[in-house]
Amino acid sequence: MSRDTMRAPLGGPAAWTGADLERSQDWIWHLDDNDISAIDDALHHVLANGLLWHKLTPSDFPLGSFTARAAAISKELEEGRGIVLLRGLPVERYDADALKIIHYGIACHLGTPIYQSAGGELIGEITDEGAAALDRGTLQKAGDAQPFLSSRARVQTTGPLRFHTDRADVVALLCAEQSVAGGLSQIVSAIAIHDAMLERRPDLLEELFCDLPRSRLGEEKDGGKAYYMLPVFALQQGHFTTHYSRTYVEAGQKVDEVPRVSDAQWQALDLLQDLGHELCLTHRFEPGDIQYLNNHVLYHARTAYEDAAVDGSTLSGQGKRLLYRMWLSMPNSRPLPASHAVLFGETGPGALRGGIRQADGSNVPAGSA
User: Fold this and answer.
1) What structural domains does the chain harbor?
2) C-alpha angle 94/95/99, rounded to 5°?
3) CA-to-CA distance for 78 and 297, rounded, in angstroms?
4) C-beta neighbour count of 335 within 10 angstroms
5) What is the DSSP letter of 246?
6) What separation in angstroms does the CA of 136 have from each of 57, 89, 291?
7) Is-contact 37 84, C-beta < 8 A?
8) Exposed/middle/buried for residue 131 (C-beta within 10 Å: 0-12, 13-18, 19+)
9) Please, what sign has the CA dihedral across residues 32, 332, 124, 233?
10) Count H helices, E strands: the chain?
11) In this predicted model, what pLDDT tens digit does every residue of 167-218 receive, in sequence order?
12) How many CB atoms lie within 10 A of CB 308?
C-alpha cells in the first residue's frame, strides 16, 4: 500500500479501550463447579493412564461439558475482543505437575502448542531468576556501560515489560502465584492504537506500515543475517495484524550492518507506546487466572513487581510471582502477509505456524501437528 493511500478506521469488537473493559466484565469467564469437575476428571484420566503433559492431545484430556466453552474461547479470540480470562481455577489444590497438565490440556482444545525456545520449551515458567536471567541473552556494544538485555532475559526479572507481541497466534498465561506488590498486567488493543493514531498523526501511522529492522538477538542460524525487516502494522485480505517489540528494534541499532531507524520511525514508536498507556487495561492477575490473548490484535505488558522475602531470601511459592506461559497456533487464525513468513513460517489462515524452530525444523512436538 502506497503512502498516498487513504486509510480508514478499522473499528470492530477488538477495537476496545481499557475503560470499555472496566465497564463490562464479560471478558472474564468464571469457572463454575461443573467446569472444575470436568477439568478434574480430565486430570484424573491423565494421571491414571500415566500420560505425559507435553505429549497430550485433546482426546488425552477429555473435557466433556467444558469442550463447548473451549470452542467459544477460540472464537472470541479470533472474532471478538481477542482476550478471554478464565477465572477460578483452584490452584492451591494442585501441584506444579498437575497445573502443567491442566494448562496444556485445556490449550490443546484451543489450538496446537508450539515451541518457545530453541531448547524445546513448551511451557515457560515466568518468574524472577535474578542474575541467572542474564544467561537468557544479552547484547553489549563497545562503550556500553551495561549489557542490553534480550526480551527473554527481561521477562525473567522483576522489572517492567513494555508492550509487545509474542511469536504465536495466541499466548496463554496461567497465574500460579502472584507477587506481594506490582506485577500488574497491561493489555491494549493494537486496533484502538491504529485508529487513534490515524486521527491524531496519520503521517506517523504510515511509518508503522513500513518495514522496520529487528535484531534476531542471536536467533540467526547457519550464518544468516543478524536482523530481519518487518512492519509493525499490516493488512492481509482485510485482516489486520501487528507484530511488535521495541526491544528487538533497539537491539538492531547496536549492530553496524543493520539499517538505521529514522527520526520519524522513532516518533511513531514513541506515539505507539504513549497511546498504549492511554488506552490500555491494567489489572492484577489472581492465582488461578488463565489469560488468553490474540497476538495479532493485542499487545501485553507488565509493571515492575516485588516478591516476598525473608532474611533477604525470596520465598518459593508464597508471594513469589510465577506464571506458566504457552504459545498456541490456532486452527481458526487469520491470514498473514507474506512478509511475516520470516517469523511465522506458514502464513495461510489456520496454518500451523509460529514459535521457535528446532534443529530438525519443527515448531511442534512430534505427533501434535
Assistant:
1) 23-344 (3.60.130.10)
2) 70
3) 9
4) 16
5) H
6) 30, 31, 24
7) no
8) exposed
9) negative
10) 10, 21
11) 999 999 999 999 999 999 999 999 999 999 999 999 999 999 999 999 887 5
12) 17
DSSP 3-state percent helix, strand, coil across the chain (nearest 5): 35, 20, 45
Q: What is the dihedral of CA 339, 343, 349, 351, to 10 degrees?
A: 140
Cβ–Cβ < 8 Å for 197, 271: yes
Q: In Å, how far are 68, 77, 148, 153 from 254, measured between CA atoms?
A: 49, 36, 9, 17
Kindly report whether the global pTM for this prediction surpasses the value 0.70. Answer: yes
List C-alpha distances in Å: 59 to 33, 39, 55, 108, 368: 22, 13, 11, 9, 12
What is the CA angle 80-85-91, rounded to 5? 160
**Any residues with CB less than 8 A from the CB of 71 and at least 6 apart, and which?**
109
Could you write out the DSSP letters of every residue in 116-149?
SSTT--SSEEES--GGGGGGG-EE--TT-SSPEE
Torsion sign (Cα): 247, 135, 184, 171 = positive
Query: Phi first, then psi: what are they for 242, rounded to 5°?
Result: -135, 145
Residue 229 grid cell: 525487516
pLDDT tens, position by position, 244-296: 999 999 989 988 889 999 999 999 999 999 999 999 999 999 999 999 999 99
Beta-strand pair 124-126/322-329: antiparallel
Pairing status of strand 290-294 against strand 161-164: unpaired
Whole-angstrom CA distances from 57 to 43, 50, 245, 367 are 13, 14, 32, 9
**Residue 167, all three cell numbers:** 511469536
Is residue 248 within 8 A of residue 217, CB to CB? The reply is yes
